[in-house]
Structures are given as structure tokens and as C-alpha cells.
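Pasting as-is:
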Amino acid sequence: MIAIAAIVADIVLILTHRVRAVPDPAKYAPWPYIAVGLAGCAAGWLVVGRPEAAWDDLFLALVCGVVVTSEAAHAARALSGRPWVGWATALVSGAAAATWLLPDPLPFT
């Protein structure tokens, strides 16, 4: 449930950024946000109790926690104008994506 809410929020943030953004001639490098999203996935995996991961669950967690998160972090940074918002979005969304690995819909139940 947490992962679904996080991915929906990320997609809404990305779409809002795409609608409102002024075309920016300068390209951004997503690698720092990818690294923070991956660190967030690892931290979330540790927090939820290091569940066993099947390949299909792991792929879903990594796609949501790294690829979508890096784009959402860039959108959050661009919309807010503050760099820390992008870093926080990458970390929290990455940690939330780790809940895809849980056998139950909610952690700690």
C-alpha cells in the first residue's frame, strides 16, 4: 500500500512538472538522484525487516525506487526551487519502493 501511494504521488509530481515546466535548454544529470534513490531502497529494505526478494518483486522495487524516483526528484526540485526537496523526494520515494518486497500490503502488521 505504501509503495502504491508513493508511485502514484511520484507520477502526479512528474506529470505536474511536465505540464508546468518551461523548456529548459540545460540538461540535468540524474545520477545523483539515482544514487540517493538506490540508497533509499536499501534503507527501506533494512527498515521493513530485510524480506526475501523474488526477481519480479526486486525488479518492480528497483524500477519504482530508482528510475521513477529520480525523475520525481528532478520534478520536485524544479517545481520547488529548493535543492533539498529533490534529495528528500529521492530518499523517501526510494524507501517507500522497498515495501514492494513485502508479502503483506502493510509493513509491521
